[in-house]
Amino acid sequence: xxxxxxxxxxxxxxxxxxxxxxxxxxxxxxxxxxxxxxxxxxxxxxxxxxxxxxxxxxxxxxxxxxxxxxxxxxxxxxxxxxxxxxxxxxxxxxxxxxxxxxxxxxxxxxxxxxxxxxxxxxxxxxxxxxxxxxxxxxxxxxxxxxxxxxxxxxxxxxxxxxxxxxxxxxxxxxxxxxxxxxxxxxxxxxxxxxxxxxx
Length: 199
What we know:
Layout: H1 2-25, H2 32-39, H3 43-49, H4 53-70, H5 81-91, H6 96-113, H7 116-142, H8 151-171, H9 178-193
């Protein structure tokens, strides 16, 4: 049992080193050597946990998803459209922590697109996000907050809008301040809420 506890503790140290490298250098700087340096250990120790860079990147993506899920978030004031709004705001880089997390996510796209297994994992992650947004859209339609329509399309449009805003805010934070991001999100949702005949 102590050996298992030591192994788990060491793996936690390795995971912390992976996150440190990600936060400082992004996926472009994520190497076995860089993780070993952050850990203050040999590369050989890191290869005990990861056979190669692909496994290291897969683990980094898992850490990123867990940290994204566990970070402080706004609580939805109610179901339907308020919940949809809250989910979108929780994705946006409205705080320094949110901006750092989004920079890492955007940096992960290149590595995920070039590896079939990582590609599949990222596809599943984005489907899970769309499923959550779809549930909000269904609730909003049931409450009369959104007009009838395909909730899958609504979820896809909402996530596409949000990711586009993320990229613009990361590249031009002075222009896309948190207040402006929030206003643009509210404008987007208000447009969704209008009947099709009024758009």
